[in-house]
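R.M. (postdoc): so does anyone remember the format we settled on? I'll just put the structure tokens first.
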């Protein structure tokens, strides 16, 4: 698999943050970044460093691949209905 620098990394940070009732500022403080960084990540304007990706994974208690992907995520409703 050939990887190209600058590839967009998709994430579920906004969904996970909202699900837990956190503001961008609260999440940023919890993981040690500026609140604007969370916004950039959520909008896809910035790809997380490996360190930040692992920190977010630990914070949310989820494997990194459930938060970040090189392919767009299917909507959660679609994934849930497929499991039924």
């Amino acid at each position: 698999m050939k990887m190209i620098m600058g590839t967009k990394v998709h994430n579920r940070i906004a969904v996970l943050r909202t699900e837990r009732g956190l503001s961008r500022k609260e999440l940023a403080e919890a993981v040690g970044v500026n609140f604007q960084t969370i916004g950039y990540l959520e909008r896809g304007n910035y790809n997380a460093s490996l360190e930040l990706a692992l920190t977010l994974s630990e914070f949310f208690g989820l494997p990194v691949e459930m938060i970040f992907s090189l392919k767009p995520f299917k909507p959660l409703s679609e994934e849930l209905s497929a499991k039924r």
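R.M.: ...and that's the designed sequence above, right after the tokens. Also worth knowing: The chain has a mean pLDDT of 91. The domain at 10-83 is CATH 1.10.260.40 (434 Repressor (Amino-terminal Domain)).
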